[in-house]
Every structure is written in C-alpha cells, then in structure tokens.
Amino acid sequence: MGPAVTDGSADPRTARTRARLRAALLAACEERPLDRVGVAQVARGAGVGRATFYLHYDDLRALAVDACAEIVTRAVDALHAWDGAPPGPDAPPAPLGALLVEIEARAPVYRSLLSEGGGGPLGELLHARLRQRSLDELRARRPADPGQDLTASAVAALFTGVLADWLHGRTSATPALLAARIWRMLLAVHATARLTDGTP
C-alpha cells in the first residue's frame, strides 16, 4: 500500500509527482464522483503515464486518501484552535468557519470524497484523525475521567456526519451558521459526557 501522506518524501521529484497526482485527482473530482474517475484520466491530468502512477500509489483510493490528508489536518486543527479552556457556545473557533467557507467553495470535490453518511476516503480519514486528536486532548486534560473513548467517537462521528449531510444537501446552512451549530453540539457532547461520568 502506498503511503497515506507523501509531502515529506526525501526525493523532491517524488514529492512533485505525487503533488501533481493529488492535484489531478482533485480536479477530476470537480467534474465527476470519485467512483467514475479513472487512473488513466488522473495520470493524464498529472502529465505522467499509468506506470508512473502505480509507482506511487496502489490504486485511486490510496491517492484519494493522500489527497484528503491536508484538508483533514486543517479540519482537526480548526476544531482545536484554542488555548486553555474552549470558547463558549456563541464563539466557535474562527478557523472552523473559514474552513467551511473553503469547503463550500469546492463542494463538488469534497462531496465526491466524502460520501453520504460520512464514508469515503475523506470521511474515513477525518473520523479516524479527529477521534484520535479528541482522545489525546481528553487524556491530557482529564486523565482520570472514564469513557473518553466513547466521547472521542461521538465527536468524530458528529462532525464527520454533519459535514457529509451538509455537502450532500441534507441540511441547509451558511458556513457561519453551520460552524456555530456544530460547535454548540460538540460542546454539548462534552458536557453530557461529564455529567454522565459524574464529573463536575
């Protein structure tokens, strides 16, 4: 299996080729769903041959996971863009709203990579990374609390699922309104978990 994140390649030529392949895939996903994109189309868009494609990735899904890595990192960071105590329910982190504006602007791409229900390469990677980041934060801030794995799962599932529904038109909101609603729901998850665990 090809590497999930390849920007750190020690070979500049390898890094450039993979960057072109990621860009070509994202461009293709602006026109059609991922399951209708072919290796030949992506290789042609990147200016390389099919053999070169397979030197870097096992298949299109491996490339898609790599192409999603940057937006996933930014999404996870946006949900944790605060120091000390998290902001209140009326003040979602500013990077979250900005990220949603960008995602909306390229909705066809992200809709192709994040399937309904939160699946697809983007959904799976986002859920996994967000769950791990949430779990790490909980363990660092409240190491004695039980049920942290469940809380982290709820956070990851909530954000990934709501984002997918928004992109697929199941819910309607501006990026700013969506950021505010998501933030309130995430705070509610944490508050409920503390009450359930008996934590003041």
TrEMBL record:
Keyword DNA-binding included in the entry's annotation: yes
Annotated InterPro entries: Homeodomain-like_sf, HTH_TetR
Residue ranges occupied by any HTH tetR-type domain in the UniProt entry: 15-75
Feature: DNA-binding region: 38-57
Protein name from the UniProt record: TetR family transcriptional regulator
Keyword set, alphabetical order: DNA-binding
Record-linked SUPFAM superfamilies: Homeodomain-like (SSF46689)
Species name: Streptomyces pakalii
Gene3D superfamilies: Tetracycline Repressor, domain 2 (1.10.357.10)
